[in-house]
Amino acid sequence: MAETTHPSGTGAHGAPGGDDGTSRRDFLYLATGAVGAVGVAAAAWPFIDSMNPAADTLALASIEVDLAPVAEGQSITVTWRGKPVFVRHRTAKEIDEAKKVNLSELRDPAPDDKRVQKPEWLILVGVCTHLGCVPLGQKPTDPRGDYDGWFCPCHGSHYDTAGRIRKGPAPANLVVPQYAFLSDNRIRLG
Amino acid sequence: MAQAHASNFKNPVVKWIDSRLPIFTMLHHEYNEYPMPKNVNYLWAFGAIAGIMLVIMIATGLVLAMQYAANTAIAFDSVERIMRDVNYGWLLRYVHANGASFFFIAVYLHMFRGLYYGSYKAPREILWIIGVVIFLLMMATAFMGYVLPWGQMSFWGATVITNLFSAFPIVGDPIVTWLWGGFSVDNPTLNRFFALHFLLPFVILGVVILHTAALHICGSNNPLGIDPKGPQDTVPFNPYITVKDLFAVVVFLIVYAIFVFFMPNYMGHPDNYIPANPLVTPAHIVPEWYFLPFYAILRAIPDKLGGVLAMFGAIAVLVVLPWLDTSKVRSCKFRPIYRQFFWVLALDALVLGYAGAMPAEGHWLLIARIGTAYYFFHFLILLPVLGKLERPSPMPASISEPVLKGGGRVAAGAHAKPMEKA
Fold it and tell me: How many angstroms separate the CA of residue A170 from the nearest CA in chain B?
């Protein structure tokens, strides 16, 4: 067998074949292939990761918002990370509506006090969790849906006064962004 | 030893090149003497028409790219500059924008031709699957091209479509951020969409060459769906089919020109002449018409992930179609029952398209749901079962027979072998 002329014959060129038909050459072949695959994957990563948010995009990721001019019942929209953020100064009635809801009837159950830091200030990313439209309800003339919060015109999702999904195709509540109160009238988003 | 290709060309220069690189032999073989079934009808011209549309799109796209600026601050204005200031810019842009629609018209007719005459069946499965790949690449290219003018529909279309990927659990959100290159559709998104919109047409061109190569291995199907039995059933591609295809191309281009010159914005959406505004969503977001049936399927399912999966599934069933259709008979001409369901499917696609353009509520939502149910019923249940139950009508013994015997289908029936494997 040592004189085999088969081109891929194991044991050719002095590589002794093992009892189970494997050889040092088979091992080297697989090991080379494995190292090559790891190398290709490592080389591909910079290409893939270059498409993730760049440092300058990340650097713009936090802003400060002055709440003082927003009277009770009013809302403002600020741009944060390219997205609208809803800031609503809730009325006592709106807070009451949000608190009275029976959690078991919610699609994405969350109590009102988990969604606000101060009950009168509701801060939400104004992007519908369905397919990313901006819901209506910020202007006094906008439709606010069946639950007095926001209504998404694209596919008909209704949100309540805590930004929770109540009706329509959206799977989750409006997202509460990371924010902190710097003083009574000032917050930092991000 | 090195051996040159034995070339038959008389011209010494052609012969010299051809014996070293037999490109002339190859072209002669594939586009001059390539045998075409002699009974192909005008529906067989839509492949050539789609090819011409690809060339038109690449040519106009190249010169438009020399004027366009892929930056959110100036993209919209650069398109308006093309329309107003660039020499013939209005013409090139309208040819390109309407060209996308006419490319899809040609490809959809090409696909329905394949569905009706069973062109996806053995041995043309790979040919068909490559075609579905071209269709997917076209959809990606068209979608990214529509984003470039950076109008309201561009921006919100991009937002809705990229958000489809957020439906997938765990990996969804990182994928969307990666697609955007930020936290929303923004300048990095526009930049990469432009780069990909430039690249993908050339990828399509490469896959089209594979599509043609696969076609020329099996040969073209024909309206009877039976294989040519010999040279008496075929004609050489040139001049018979080149002339027939050219005539069809000219008629198609006339219709296309009517749109370009007299109603260039008919298939567009007026909201896309409003510059993109990330804080205001248009009241009614609709994709371009060629995506509407799939958009209707997306919205028909009340669950987000389910809708996304159904939409991708609508294309996935086309990939496995050669194995879903269990009938050995290719052409609908000889499938009396399936022929009727084919037209139901064609009507279903139109109804879904119309429902996709309407608001997703009330009876339109119900219609979209019925349409979606039929679409999947047709491919997943009807086709496998009908192939086993249906009794095909008698088929002629050859392509020439019904013509030469002069008796059409009646005479053909007398000589037919009913269950001949086509």
Answer: 7
Q: How big, in percent rounded to 5, are the helix, strand and coil portions of chain B?
A: 70, 0, 30
pLDDT in tens, A14-53: 445 556 777 889 999 999 999 999 999 999 999 999 999 9
Shortest Cα distance from B265 to chain A (angstroms)? Answer: 23
CA distance B195 to B366: 40
Interface-testing mutation among A80, A155, A158, A165, with chain B (most B C-beta atoms within 10 A): A155
Residues of B with active-site annotation: 216, 220, 244-245, 288
CB contact under 8 A, B283 and A153: yes
Q: Which residues of A touch B283 (CB under 8 A)?
A: 153
Amino acid type, B392: P
ipTM over 0.85: no
pTM: 0.86
More confident residue, A18 or B123: B123
Q: Where in the sequence numbering do the catalytic residues of A fall?
A: 155
Centre a 10 Å sphere on the Cβ of residue B145 and count the other Cβ atoms it contains.
24
Contact A155 B284 (CB under 8 A): no
List pLDDT tens digits, range B27-45. 999 999 999 999 999 999 9
Name the token pair of B246: 């050219």
Q: Which residues contact A71 (CB under 8 A, 6 or more apart)?
A: A89
Using alpha carbons, select from A117, A100, A160 the residue that is nearest to residue A135: A160
Question: Would you call B169 an interface residue with chain A, using a CB distance cutoff of 8 Å?
Answer: no
**Pairwise CA distance, residues B185 & A94, whole Å:** 32
How far does the CA of residue B188 sit from the closest CA of chain A (Å)? 8
Are B72 and B187 in contact by the 8 Å Cβ rule? The answer is yes
Contact A122, A88 (CB under 8 A): yes
